[in-house]
Design goal:
CATH topology of the largest domain: Phosphatidylinositol Transfer Protein Sec14p
Largest sheet: 5 strands, mixed
Number of strands: 7
Strand order of the largest sheet: 2-3-4-5-6
Distance between the termini: 39 Å
Radius of gyration: 20 Å
CATH architecture of the largest domain: 3-Layer(aba) Sandwich
Number of domains: 2
CATH superfamily of the largest domain: CRAL-TRIO lipid binding domain
Strand content: 5-15%
Shape: globular
Order of helices and strands: HHEHHHHEEHHEHHEHHEHHE
Number of helices: 14
Length: 327
Amino acid sequence: MGYPWKSEKIKPAVDENCNVSENLMKIAKKELREDKHTREQALQQLRNWINKNPDIENLRSDDQFLLRFLRVKKFSVPMAEQVLLKYLNLRKTYPHMSMNLDFLEPRVNSFMSNGYIFASPIRDRHGRRVVIMSAKGINPKIHTSTDQAKSHFITYETLMEDTETQILGLTHIADFSGVTTAHVTNWNPTEFARVFKWGEQSFPLRHKEIYLVNVPSSLKWVVDFVKNRVSAKIKNRFHCYTNVKDLHKHVDPDCLPQELGGKILMADMVESWKKELIAKRDLVINLDKMNLLSDRGITTSKNNNISTNSDGGIMTQWNPLPEVSEN
C-alpha cells in the first residue's frame, strides 16, 4: 500500500527548522538533549527502524509526528520506539476511545462545547499550554466514559502537533466543582485504572504539573486511587487544593477562565480552542490510517531488553547520549 499521507488535505506541515526558536532550543538542549545533529541522527535511526519493522503499517513519518516520541524520551531511540509501539497498541486495544476522533461528531461536540476539557489560549509562566478540565461539563446521565476518553484523546492529539508543547510539556488543571458519585461510577474502575496507566506509558506527552482544585473531602479517595496507579514521577507532580485561592499561588490566574478567577470567560476559551480543533481536525481523524499488526515488539517487564527482541521485532542500533535527570 502506498504512503497514505500525501493528500494536501491531510498532509502534515513540513517545517525544515522544526519550528524551534533560539530560546526554545536552549530549553530543548538542557532538558531533552536536543540539538540539530542529535535531532537529525535520531530521526534517521527511527525512520530506518520503522521502514524495517513489519508490524507497523501506514505510519505518519513526518518530523513533527516522529519528534514527539523522541522528545518525550530525550532522544533515546530505543525508548522512543517502545513508546511508538505502545501508542499504536493503545489505539488498537481501545478503538472505541481512541479512533474516529472527530470533535464535530454530535455527542463529542456537545460534550466538549460544555467545557469539559479545553486548552487555555494563555500559556503559563513556563510557556506551557494549560489544559483545563471541568466536572461541570459532564452530565453523567447523558455522557459516557467513552465520550470522556475521546475528548481527552482529541485534545492531546491536537496539542501534540505543536512543537512548543512537545518540548515544554503541559500543565493540567482539573476543577472538581459539582462532582457527584454518578460522575465517579460512570467508569468501570478496572478499565479506568488500565487506561490511565496505559495513557501515561503510551502517549508521547510531558505532563509537568497537575493541579486538582475544589476536591471535596468525600472524593479524596478517587485522587488516591489515581495516584497509586501512575509512576512515582507523575505522582509527585499531583497537587490537590480545596479552593481556587491556593491554586492562584502556583498558577497565574490569567491562564484560567473567569470561573476559576481568571479574566476570560470559559465559554470564550472553549470557542478559541474549537478553532484550534478545526485547524487540526483532518490530521487527527486520519490518524486512524495507522495500524499495528502485532504487539510482539513491545518490551514487557518479563522481557525488559530494549536492545534485542527474541520475538522477531526489529530494534535499532543507536548512538547513546549522556545520562540526564528526569524532567
